[in-house]
Amino acid sequence: MDREPVEGTVTFDGQPVPRGSIWFEPDASIGTDAPTGFSAIRDGRFVTEPEESPVAGPHPARISGFDGSPPDDDEWDSPMEYPGNPIFDEYTVDVVIPPPDGQLQIDVPAP
Predict the structure, then answer these.
(1) Is residue 64 part of a domain?
(2) Which of 105, 92, 109, 108 is nearest to 7 (CA)?
(3) Is residue 58 part of a domain?
(4) Residue 79: per-residue pLDDT
(5) Terminus of the chain with fewer CB atoms < 10 Å: N or C?
(6) How confident is the model over 23-37, as pLDDT tens digits?
(7) Residue 16: CATH number of its domain
(8) How many domains does the chain have?
(9) Are 108 and 10 in contact (CB under 8 A)?
(10) C-alpha distances in angstroms, 104 versus 12, 64, 99?
(11) Does the residue 1 lie in any domain?
(12) What's the CA gap between 22 and 70, in Å, rounded?
């Protein structure tokens, strides 16, 4: 199965999501052995790397968003960057890969 690079933007309430992640999980119609795609979101933008891109077809896209603020204390002792505090509950939207012009624009609605 060939992977399809995807890039785009993610906004929340009309503003770019500072930090987050987007996961492309294959729909049952393309098979359970299709790979999952992933990208980090930075300043409202994401780009999937070739080895982490989804395959063509329908996918639920799961999106997490964070404010990018520093930890509340100085004890953040992890090799991973602290993404900040969540700004919305995980959001899922159905998308089709590849999108028009290879671009996805996703707006997470405010509650």
Answers:
(1) yes
(2) 105
(3) yes
(4) 54
(5) C
(6) 999 887 776 678 889
(7) 2.60.40
(8) 1
(9) yes
(10) 14, 16, 6
(11) no
(12) 21
pTM, 2 dp: 0.86
Domain around 38: 7-71+78-108
3-class DSSP string for 23-52: EECCCHHHCCCCCCEEEEEECCEEECCHHH
Q: Tell me the CB-side half-sphere exposure of residue 37, using CA atoms within 13 A.
A: 31
Residue 77's pLDDT band, with cuts at 50, 70 and 90, is: low
Q: What torsion, rounded to 10 degrees, do the Cα atoms 48, 46, 55, 94 define? A: 160
- Region for 87 from its dihedrals, namely left if φ exceeds 0, alpha if ψ lies in -120 to 50, beta otherwise: alpha
Residue 44: both structure tokens together: 């409202």
Q: Which residue has the tokens 């790979």?
A: 35
Residue 2 lies in a domain: no
Residues 78-105 have pLDDT tens digits of 656 778 889 999 999 999 998 878 899 9
Distance of CA 91 to the CA centre of its chain: 10
